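Late entry, written up from scratch paper. The run itself happened at the end of the previous shift, but nothing got recorded in the book at the time, so transcribing now.
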Amino acid sequence: MPLTPAIEEPQIHESAQGPRVTPAASRTAQTPRPVPGPRPAAVPRPGRPGPARPAPPAQRAPQATPGPVPAAPAPTAPSVSAAVPQIQLIPASAEGALDAAEEAVDLLLDTGRAPGDILVLTSGDPHPWAAHELSFGEAAYWALHDAGDDVFYADAAQVQRAAGRPVVVFAANGGAVDTIAGALPVALTRAGALLIVCGEPQQINSVLGAGV
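Output as recorded:
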């Protein structure tokens, strides 16, 4: 029996294959775009609170039922210590009491006291300002007192006529002992917050008490 030659399987040469597709150099692979999701809440600016989100209905607290309004407490009476002015003693001789009073006034003004808050009383010779203003007459002099917009200087014997002011400066610059003893307690009642006494400590303590 004759042998039949083996059928060779046809070979496919590389040149016979179809054209090879290569990606173009100028095109780049596109990255997939992200799927849009929910936008985050806006960040509030520094110092400015962001808008408050309303609470869901299930989390809201039940509204309180209005009840009776409590009565306001009764006003309390002011303490006695608040009504009593402070007393400050500046040791000075009769000759230097007026200068000490002037220094006290300057210090009060420098620390913020208004000029109309200060009344200065002298037990001896009047202050030069008072002597000058009295030269225009009693009416004009006391009109300045009633205006209350500047430091006022008066004789301690006229303390009953002077109106009260937050600060009273008493200069024991001479005069009768009875005048000082009678004017000092009244000057204390005229002082709303502070009484400054310039004079001999022994004499002042004998009138106002050893606690001065």
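The longest strand covers residues 191-199.
(Scratch paper discarded after transcription.)
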